[in-house]
From TrEMBL, chains A, B:
The keyword Transmembrane helix does not apply. Its EC number is 6.1.1.14. This is glycine--tRNA ligase. Belongs to the class-II aminoacyl-tRNA synthetase family. GO terms for molecular function: ATP binding; glycine-tRNA ligase activity; transferase activity. Residues 80-562 form the Aminoacyl-transfer RNA synthetases class-II family profile domain. InterPro entries: aa-tRNA-synt_IIb, aa-tRNA-synth_II, aa-tRNA-synth_II/BPL/LPL, Anticodon-bd, Anticodon-bd_dom_sf, Gly-tRNA_synthase/POLG2, GlyRS-like_core, tRNA-synt_gly. Its main location: cytoplasm. Homodimer. Coiled coil: none annotated. GO terms for biological process: translation. It catalyses: tRNA(Gly) + glycine + ATP = glycyl-tRNA(Gly) + AMP + diphosphate.
Length: 695, 695
């Protein structure tokens, strides 16, 4: 907030200084044209130059203030450079490859190359272990091709849109909000002549950008004279573009379909079968890992905003009257950065909260939601996400769907800013109700009472004969309106009829009031016995963008360090063994038959122990071979420099220990599988002096 | 073949009998109309009836012969009943679910429910272990959305089609070949008045069905008067329908894209990067697991012919001059059913061959292809495919693409007949060349020679001045034609020019002969030094239809056996532990706190050992609980009937052994992980007498 106040006063100072310059400039011109004395003119010019210097100084203060506010410490340029270094390494080592590269690619589509594919598969199998197996979730696997009726029910056909504008001459499409956002940011960052009032206006637009209607966006684009970025041509009015890839199922052309925008709908439509499979018991969770699609108007932000991505979604179905969670105590003590709605509105920062307190104070709506927040925190940090660059941000009222009870995003800080990577939403009964209505199949749960319960029920009995006499052709509509009365209205009518004998009653379908007499309807409350309660379950949905998590992990794991000779910077990915694409490399120190034999023997034991590894028997220097594997994030390297014992090197500390050939596979397995730590290994085995190490 | 000869003579006998009946019927009518004696008429009628009886007997012989030929032993009705039993069990236990069932589904789309999802994930992780890890393959993961240019290069835009006909009134679409096939089969099976000649014609059509052009198909449909099956309306002429799901990438509508029909193209377009990643060395293989799509005209055959499916594909790149494989000896001794091209053409059956011999005799084109055939055999049989219902069928000449060097399908016998589940093709350099041409990026490999090699090279030098004088405006075309001569043609010309001084030479681009004289061109051979050889690698492609393999596995694993009381048939899936969706169940024998505690203790040890399992503490009888898990194919059940030792039951034998509580998790882990067999367990632990077992 301090930075903003600064910025404001600096903009005002700048405007003042500019008007002083204008005045002084005028004075100089006047002196010159009136043929004043040379000395006087010189003095006036000097004063003008002094003012200009002062203006320049304020400008650079403003520049610094803006950079500070935007970057949270690091400058935008240094963040770009860092990202470039990460992305270069990722692309050079084939963690990912722009898809269809030899055909100059397609924006927003990327391949996972061999190490990236391995990281992804490690992340997914840890996800399965941490969520599906741990909680006995029911995993399903549904197709990507989805018929229109399903996505009409879910609301995607109508609402899964972005506002788009077209270059009126070339037809090139742009996201309307992106253009307005870019314009405002550019102005704020680079236009020092901007008045403080104008700056405040642009900032307000940035804050409410997501809430602007097509008309409002269009008006602003017109007002600011924003044109197509590439051609400067005029732009069309904004209109909604549906972000689903559309296709046609079967040959007839009459069955529209879409590539699913999320995996969740496949679970909702199967609710009835899954509930039965679970023995008709709540709560239970279903889960799905799979591809989802989003036909972005113009993808930006590299690997973060793509047109096809892997989602891992959980739908936890729960009784809306009981959202407690039996295992909540397992996570209640966790403390991490949370960013509740109120703190965002009042301009505070995210702060460390204890999860148990956040739930008991009502900051987080319920225990089950809280439980998943805690489990997501554990999942992400165990993968290697830096806990200081991870926060849980609550949705603001305007961000949340009307039906949602509460919603928190796990956001990870990257060079692009804070990125939503996991959404954890209590979606209430919305989705099941929507599909129930559209399909006419009841998606409900039953709670069987251990013994029948007595329930007071409202009974409204219209007396058809009297109503017919009184209302003739309108009888049916009056009858229906009477039957549809809510309890409160009905009980008021009952009281009025008893005291006054008749009452005015508004019938919507007739659009007028009618007079209801005492003999036309009987209203009473009766006690009934019920054996079960039937209800639509609430669903709590943690939804993981796997590609985004992996990209943030790359940024959090990347660092550089000087080579031994100090002549170059070497890249390292400090992946934990859990996600490292390869757990271990095996090098003979020099090319030598005996050492190669030992290396192959060790490789066999590693295979038997299930540790993915690679042998490198090229004659390259050991230092270069270490550098190569550091860049792939391989945590351990075994170097064969004798036939009896070998060295094991840890990637980040570069510490080496000496271990017997027979033992080395099991030592590496223990640290790679997380059964022991590198510190444990250091205690157990002698540190290897680096004399033979070429590093 | 015997059945066919039978059928033929039976049809002839039937035709003869019919004409005898016609003659005798005429005789009866004549006797009646001429008022013959009653006894004479009766005798004639008796003779007619005798003939009719004989005809009926021949008809039933024909019926039997047809059923025998079609069913290979089991009747079509019993195969349908078996399939229905399997499919009912699969659907009831949620191995799979028709997708979007509450909206009445979409033909050809299925979900994997919880146990099916688990089987699939087991099959895929075994695939990764058996192929990717074992051979150090480079796994990649590419998007499903694919731009048109890629699928134009691969030929899919032009050729990935089926021929379709439309009901001319309702617009309903059918596959043209399916209608013709159904017509021929129906006629052959049910029309006993068919002449032997007509039967032979229909059989010929069935044999060549895949080779018929749109015109030929259309002519046959007209000739036989085939109409729309549902409405009997007339049909349109057949025309090609592209089976790819089409979509549009981005908002402009000018970038057509398709959902990939196979995963292979994603690998081919990355060849250059992958080759570099592999240190510029051949051979190497890349692999990919992912969704593929096929917009079937009218899907049939349930889970076998679907519109979206998981493929696992390997592209093994190899020097076309050296297709040997260093590990071929590992599989050379394997013997299994093979069905070479020649045996198919000469009407023989598949027979057992030794793989090593099949390669050395040239039946299988090369060692690398043979190696993968062997590895596929091991993969499928380890999953639980019955080796007697698995055969490798070589493609006939008319089935194979013109560029393919050889191609074998792993076919599995199911209730639908022999089903292609894995294709193993040597596709030569076709795919890389196609993408090289279309993208103008060289997708080639280099073989660096250890020392430069001397290569004799043809050098053709046209003498432009003389050619210009002789051919004026045609000079350029003559020059180009000379330069383009192949070695043989050039050396003949050289000889002719030396002996005769001139020679007639055909210039294609001019469409005529010209006379070339000795002074117009110099032809020689020179020795040049080359440091490397540049070539397009061949690719050997094993491609696995994962869903088909799983469905066949379900059929091969399914059997029924009577319940103990003998009052019902119980279903069992005899999955090997490797693919079983759950490895083990844990039951307390009776509902009892102490037993439940023991069960939970065992569950914890099983979790620690990484064995997927389920506790069932419902009060259901132990027999019913066993039946429930047998139906899911759970191989082992632990029943807690004391606090010190428990019983372990094997699913198929129903044998039980008694094991100490502390040891039971490790015993189950050993058999579930395949480290020991159930026979080993029987030797180690006392058989449990079934007195307490309720089964």
């Amino acid at each position: 907030m301090a930075a903003v106040a600064d910025e404001d006063s600096l903009r005002r100072a700048l405007a003042q200084k500019q008007s002083s310059i204008d005045v002084q400039g005028g004075a100089v011109r006047q002196l010159k044209s009136s043929g004043a004395a040379k000395l006087d003119i010189e003095a006036a010019v000097q004063a003008l130059n002094a003012l200009k210097l002062e203006k320049a100084s304020i400008e650079s203060q403003l520049q610094a203030a803006l950079a500070g506010a935007a970057g949270g410490g690091s400058s935008s340029a240094s963040r770009d450079a860092f990202r470039q270094a990460v992305v270069n390494t990722l692309e050079r080592r084939l963690f990912y490859i722009p898809s269809f590269k030899i055909y100059r690619g397609v924006a927003g589509l990327y391949d996972y190359g061999p190490p990236g594919c391995s990281v992804k598969s490690n992340v997914l199998s840890f996800w399965r272990q941490h969520f599906v197996l741990e909680e006995n979730m029911l995993e399903v696997d549904c197709p990507c091709v989805t018929p229109e009726v399903v996505l009409k029910a879910s609301g995607h056909v109508e609402k899964f849109t972005d506002l788009m504008v077209k270059d009126e001459k070339t037809g090139t499409c742009y996201r309307a909000d992106h253009l307005l956002k870019d314009f405002c940011k550019e102005k704020l960052e680079k236009d020092f002549s901007l008045s403080a009032e104008k700056a405040a206006e642009l900032k307000h637009i940035l804050a409410v950008l997501d809430d602007l209607s097509a008309e409002q966006l269009g008006a602003k684009i017109k007002e600011y004279g924003i044109t197509a970025p590439d051609t400067k041509n005029p732009l069309s009015d904004p209109y909604p573009f549906n972000l689903m890839f559309q296709t046609s199922i079967g040959p007839s052309g009459v069955s529209p379909g879409y590539m699913r925008p999320e995996t969740a709908q496949g679970i909702f439509v199967n609710f009835r079968d899954l509930y039965y499979y679970n023995g008709n018991k709540l709560p239970f969770a279903a889960a799905q890992i799979g591809q989802a699609f989003r036909n972005e108007i113009s993808p930006r932000q590299g690997l973060l905003r793509v047109r096809e991505f892997t989602l891992a979604e959980i739908e936890h179905f729960v009784d809306p009257q009981d959202k407690s969670h039996p295992k909540f105590s397992d996570v209640a003590k966790l403390e991490f950065l949370m960013f509740p709605r109120d703190d965002q509105v009042s301009g505070q920062c995210a702060k460390k909260l204890q999860l148990g307190e956040a739930v008991s104070r009502g900051t987080v709506n319920n225990e089950t939601l809280g439980y998943f927040i805690g489990r997501v925190y554990l999942f992400l940090t165990r993968l290697g996400i830096d806990k200081d660059r991870l926060r849980f941000r609550q949705h603001l009222a305007n961000e949340m769907a009307h039906y949602a009870a509460d919603c928190w995003d796990a956001e990870i800080e990257s060079s692009y800013g804070w990125i939503e990577c996991v959404g954890i939403a209590d979606r209430s009964a919305y989705d099941l109700r929507a599909h129930s209505e559209k399909s006419s199949v009841a998606l409900v749960a039953q709670e069987k009472f251990s013994e029948p319960r007595e329930v007071e029920k409202l009974v409204i009995t219209p007396i058809k004969k009297e109503l017919g006499l009184a209302f003739k052709g309108n009888q049916k509509m009056v009858t229906e309106a009477l039957e549809a009365m809510e309890e409160k209205v009905a009980m008021e009518m009952k009281a009025d009829l008893e005291s006054k004998g008749e009452v005015e009653f508004h019938v919507c379908t007739l659009g007028k009031n009618v007079t209801i007499k005492k003999n036309m309807v009987s209203i009473s409350k009766e006690i009934k016995k019920e054996h079960q309660r039937v209800f639509t379950p609430s669903v709590i949905e943690p939804s993981f963008g796997i590609g985004r998590i992996i990209y943030c992990l790359y940024e959090h794991s990347f660092y550089t360090r000087p080579s031994k000779a100090g002549d170059e910077q070497l890249n390292v990915f400090s992946f934990p063994p859990l996600v490292a694409p390869i757990k271990c490399t095996v090098f003979p120190l020099v090319q030598n038959k005996k050492y190669e034999e030992v290396a192959k023997l060790i490789s066999k034991s590693l295979t038997a122990a299930g540790i993915s590894h690679k042998i490198d028997i090229t004659g390259t220097s050991i230092g270069k071979r270490y550098a190569r594997t550091d860049e792939l994030g391989v945590p351990f390297a075994i170097t064969v420099d004798s036939t009896s014992s070998v060295t094991v090197r840890e990637r980040d500390s570069k510490d080496q220990v000496r271990v017997d050939v027979e033992k080395v596979a099991s030592v590496v397995r223990e640290v790679a599988d997380g059964l022991s730590s590198w510190a444990d290994v250091l205690k157990m085995y002698p540190l290897h002096s680096s004399e033979t190490a070429e590093e």
